Amino acid sequence: MKANPKQLLRSLVTWTALLPMVATVLVAYLGTVLWSLKVSMSNSRTFPSDEFVGLAQYERLFNNDRWLLSLENLALYGVLFIAACMLIGFLLAVFIDQEVMAEGALRTIFLYPYAMSFVATGLVWQWLLNPGNGIQQAVRQMGFEDFTFDWIIDQNKVMYTIVIASVWQASGLVMALLLAGLRGIDGEIWKAARIDGIPTWRVYVSIVLPMLGPSIATVFILLSTAVIKLFDAVVSMTQGGPGTASEVPAKFIMDHLFGRANIALASAGSIVLLLTVLALLAPLLYVRSRANAAGGDK
Question: Which InterPro entries does the record match to this protein (predicted)?
Fold first, then answer.
């Protein structure tokens, strides 16, 4: 069967249009990952070196107390940030889904913080949490002179302040994504539940949440990648302090890349973070591929 010249031309134009994206993926993404992997197995300092040292940089990395502290901080931050964003975002979505008055304005108000730069958010919260002129000082001026809210300068509590600021900014995005999922649920389900006398909370737990599975998975992936990339909020709020109490992996990498001229150790840290992202994405991609395969077999 002869190929249609118009179809061949259309296919050629399509593949030609895709070439810039393919080149970007191969050079900008895959190329830089491979280069970082090569550097992480070298003895590079200020400039790249071809001296191969195997996994020595990774051994140095995981023997570094500052790196281990950054991982602990990231784990604490990740659990609290994801849990709080999902809970608050879901509750906001349920509230908006009740067809409240000024729904459009409320959606805008809840989503607006996400449109702000994390640097701007961090600076605002740094001012609010500053014991000298923020919330603590304002409450004391009201007459509560013993009130104390100095978490941002407390080594044991500083990470919680970063969680508060981040949750304030990201909850609106979770609300928007879950609200879209809620609006996709057939209204007949609620009519049937009311007829059967099923409590509202039971409908949400047993029916609505399972139906929101794809939306929740998307939210989880977005929040998880945001956790791993955490940098600007920490820098703008605490600079990793007090001391190194709020150190996170991304700041560790940037400090060693630009401040300590140790690109090999910084590259090793970046490869570890990349593997963490892949570990988060792999289960989701596997589940989706199985679901697509099951759908295709029907």
Answer: ABC_transporter_permease, MetI-like, MetI-like_sf
